[in-house]
Each structure stands twice: as C-alpha cells, then as structure tokens.
Write a structure and sequence with these properties.
Layout: H1 3-16, E1 21-32, H2 39-42, E2 51-67, E3 72-77, E4 83-86, H3 97-105, E5 111-117, H4 127-143, H5 150-165, H6 172-179, E6 182-186, E7 197-202, H7 207-211, E8 214-218, H8 225-238, H9 242-261, H10 264-281, H11 288-299, E9 303-306, E10 314-318, H12 321-335, E11 342-344, E12 354-355, H13 358-366
Parallel strand pairs: 3-5
Antiparallel strand pairs: 1-2, 1-12, 2-5, 2-6, 3-4, 6-7, 8-10, 8-11, 9-10
Helix pairs in contact: 3-4, 3-5, 4-5, 4-6, 5-6, 9-10, 11-12
Length: about 375
Amino acid sequence: MTTDERQSRFRERLRSAPEGGVTASAPCRIDMGGTLDISTFHLPLRHLNPCTFNIALDLQTAVRVSSYDEGRVRISSRGFDDAEFSADAAPFDHPMGLMFAVAAYFGASGVHIDIASGSPPRSALGGSSVAACALAAALAAVAEDKQPSPAQIAGLAHALEASVAGVPCGFQDQLAAVYGGANAWYWPVAVGDPPFRRETVVESADFEALERRLLVAYGGIPHESKDVNGRWVRGFLSGNGRDRWRRIIDLTHQFVAALKEGNYAGAVEAMNAETAIRREMTPDVVDELGGDLIEAALRRNCGARFTGAGGGGCLWAIGEPSDIDALRTDWRNLLGKREGARLLDAQIDDEGLKCDSLWISIYIKGTDR
C-alpha cells in the first residue's frame, strides 16, 4: 500500500467513525520509587531487582481525533496554545512535539487532536505520557488492522517520547495509563525478557480502604522535571551517590511489601525515608510550600512525597484515615495561601486505557493484560 493509499484509507475510516471521530482516555498516576523506571538507573542496578510503585488516579486525559483540513494536523489542549502544522513538517521539539510525533508514526494527516486533561497542566502526574497513550490508542483504532495490546500501546508511547525528548525517559507513566490500578513495576532481569513485570499490590476490592488513606495536592506551580531528572542522571552516571539509589530501591521494596500487607505505618516510614533522601540530593525538588506540606504530614504521622521528579506539581500523602482527615484540614489551609493550589480527587482508576473503538475496548477488557 502506498503512502497516499494509506492516508486515503485513514481519512475514510476516520470520517466513517461515529460522530466523525474516535476518543480514548487514560488515567494519570501518583508514585513511589520513580526514576528507577529509567533504564540509566535500573539496568546497572538490576541485580537489586529495582521497582517503581504507582497508583492510577481517575483524573482522565481524554483525546479525541476528528477530521480536519487535508494535509494538516491541529492540536488543541487546555493550558497550551493551539498548534497547527503541515503533517509533513510538524515539529517534534514543540511543546506539543510528542503528540505530533505520535501522529506522524501513524501517518495521520487531516486530523484535529483535541486533548482534555482532568488534572492540572504540568502537574507531575504523567499527563503528557498519558495523552500520548490515549492518542496512540485512538489513532491505532483508525489506522491499524491488528489489535495492539495495552503493553504495545505503552511501549510505543514510551519509545516515541524517548525519541523526541532528548533526555532519558521513564516507563511508569505509560504503564499506569494503560493498566490502571495500584501496581509495582519491576524492571528487566535478563536480556530478552519483557521490559517490565507487573505485580498487583492492592486489589480493586480494597481500593475504598486505600482511598480513605490517600491525599493528593496540587501545589499551584507547574513542574519542570528535566532539570531535576537531569541532575539525578548526571550524578548517577558520574558514580556519585549510588549508595543513595541502592537505598531508594530498598525503601521502595519496603513500601510495596508494607502496603501489600496493609501495614500503613511501615509504608509511611518507608515513604518518608525515601523522600528525605531525594531532598538531600536535590533540595529544590520541592519548593517552600511543598516543604510545608511534607512537614505537616510528618506531624500527623503520615507519609508524604512529591510526584514524578518534583520541581513543582503535586504531592501525595498516605496514612491512617484519622491522620489523613486531620492532614486534609492542614493541607487545605496551607494550599489556600497560593492561587491555584488545591486538593485533588484521589479516587483510584482500575480500568486504565479506554477507547470508544469497539475492537480495542473488547481487547483491553477481555484478555490477559
């Protein structure tokens, strides 16, 4: 099939979709043990069985793909200026560069990509990676004859992000987006193995009990993870502080084991120790308000951690329900001092990636994920 024939088939399929478009959505995440999902870290440390834990939150990023002017790609997203380019010349170093790269992979032309995020823009909840997964699912529903699995969607979105970002990229955001739930992700143990192993830490039947013990806050300032991640990467590559990363692996294992056993005191202790190590490495990983939120959590016997690579964005806390209830009041008072800062909904998403294309919905819900 020629390029022209493929693009013609793509446009025809998109026009024939219900209401002239396809929509997919996926959840964002909160996390513990992040950075270990970057191969720069987990490959040299694989003998320690590194893992990353995350919880998918029902703050959905929805992506709708509909027909547009032939030969053009237009992207609209809350918090960003609209962007439109020729499909053949769309820039990958643009703020929407990852989305343009996903569109280019599928040869999408004559499309309007509309992104609606349920979380604040650049809130360190993995939003851009989530949007890439949702967009890849929507475009695959139009362009592909074979059904991609959730793992394939996540792998594609991760590969495209790494190819355009210019810095090492982790894998946890995409996995939380397509699988949902509360999981530990273990990174490769042998050449040729799948790139991750998933372990369910909290079953869906226990989500309500976990939700009563969670608190998530947006600090009102968008995050910039490249600088923090870049310093962590450069330090690790130079050989500095590797004992700290080994300790972070151990603490993540302790956190996962404690949470799996319902030992919230143990989870709190491990989280706070991990957060303290990262703040020692990079004191500006949280700002003054973030530090105040963490100190308030410590006073209430709760664990607190920034999400992702910090540098702005969100923080989350875990603890017993009575302690979390008290902390909720403390955090609300602290957040009220900054415009835009607020508590976020902490409902857990168990579905992961959803698409209104019939075949992908059936595939995701009806097979071994």
